[in-house]
Amino acid sequence: MAPFILPVGSAATTVRVQPVVLFNVCDAYVRRNEGQERVIGTLLGVISDGVIDVRNCYAVPHDESSERVAVDITHHQLLAGLQAKVNPKEVVVGWYSTGDGVSGSDALIQDFYSRECQNPVHVTIDTTLQNQSLAIKAYISRALLLAEKQLATEFVQVDCEVKTADLGSLGVDLMEKEISEKVQHDADSLETCISQLSLCLEQASEYVDKVVEGKQKPDQAIGRSLAEAVSQVPFISKTDLEQLTNDSAQDVLLIMYLSNLVRTQLALADRLGTAALPLL
Amino acid sequence: MAQGGPPLNFASITGNKAQDQPLRSVQLDGHVVLKIVKHCRESYPTLVTGQLLGLDIGQTLEVTDCYAFPRTDEQDDGAMDASSYQVDMMRCLREVNIDNNTVGWYQSTKMGVYQAEELITTYLSYQESIKRCICIVYDPVGMGSGRLPLRAVTLKEAFAEAAKKEGVLSLTFEKLRAKGVSRKDIFEEIPITLHNSPLAAAMATALEPEMTAAQSDTERLSLSVAPKLESNLSLLNACLDDVFLEQQTVSQYARALAWQQQQQAQWLQRRRQENAGRRANGEEPLPEEDPNQFKPIKEPPAIDGFLVFNQLNQVCNQLNGITAQGLQKVALLQGFQRL
User: Fold this and answer.
1) Residues B60-87: pLDDT tens digits?
2) Which residues, in sequence order, are CB contacts of A166 under 8 Å at separation 6+?
3) Which of A40, A44, A193, B6 is 20 to 30 A from B132 (CA-CA)?
4) Chain B residues touching A86 at Cβ < 8 A
5) Is the pTM of this model over 0.80?
């Protein structure tokens, strides 16, 4: 019997996806043609140390029926070239498709992409919202060999991680609503910040009270992190703190005075029309 | 204007009436913001630009997509590449059903400085092909005050008309005053709203990071105002230097003009004396005007002064904002201490 070889996959690859990519995919899905069930497209990114960092993507028109699959290759190559001009570091690393799971025709598409890059990664984003969740999965392909003849290609799932740091700095609450006003006054935002902080502190103190009274089982990890947080508050004597705050307040006031002075000067120049007059 | 009657169909709103209504707000899609942020942050500290695509409906300008412009190296023939890039990009985007109407451009800036002549010239060149366009200005460093440093800027109509007729550089104070355009009427900032498709909103909720405080919150609460103040103060210094240079140019022009007039008066006097002498001798008097002798001196463009003053004003406003915040935080800290 000829040996049935299952090749060992390359060193465990993980895939990291930036949120821009996911939102682009959502947008492409919303704009798909009528009658199209899913959208496919190319993923661009950077490969380093076995981690594939997916940073950008674009949709590629394709035609799918039960018998054949056609992908618009010229479109894909054209856009790849254009994107390379903008950011030469990002290369084709794989492709994405919307929809749950992997289907038969995907093998052909994966084959096509393996001509574009080594070891393409296939990411599926479930926009049909089956199982009440938006599942994001990544696969790499492995060839199944039987005595040197390729039988089939198998899709092996790998870890997929979505980096949410960017999203956090943008403000998740802004992205969650469908329409939102964006400009927030500084004073209001400071207020919401402080109220959130006080909420956190209240929760923490409630928890500690409950544990002390014995109503809740103490969790060592939480206790340790609370102790750490409290110990990080620097202990400054009252007079020192007052002096520090007064100094910084004075600096700030000085600069405020200066900027108001400049603004008044500008306003006067406007009124008197001296901006146009020469210095004599 | 379709105000009195019933027609509320799409055609009547987006028809010829579009340009009569003033632009009230700019609506950005969430993923457009993410793309702009990504592009500007990766290329920092180089300043980059890109194109905005979308729809112009009534009082709102909707931006539904964007793409970046490639960096132009000195070696390529820049103009050819840029236009063929645009054409290819538009064609590809149309195939995937993305609205390929240009509605403006975006650019990244340093410290929020955007009042430059290039903005005006770019705006005017865009206005030749599209009726309304905006420029989105993004500051990759951000002012650290927790707000998203994104602005939508457009030129005010009166100024745009004046600039188109005369050419930006030849605008002088008198012409601008005649149109009623003052320093404040050049740029206009339009409020931005964000819009997300329901799917994107669902995605954002699914991805919601477990941390209860966003990064912007911790930035907002930090007590250190000094570094921001320092950078803003150096910007203020630079602006004041610019103002000083402007004033010098204006005084130079005034002095040159005065000197030229003096020369003309002297020459005229000499001519008159000569003519008196000639008349005494019975000869033909020489003409009193010599148009070729004194060339008119070019007046420095008013636009430079305006822009510099606007910039200075903006920097002062920024400084005020930061200092006010700093004071608030100090006051809060004192309150905490008393507890």
Assistant:
1) 888 888 888 887 654 445 555 677 888 8
2) A18, A19, A20, B34, B37, B38
3) B6
4) 39, 68-71
5) no
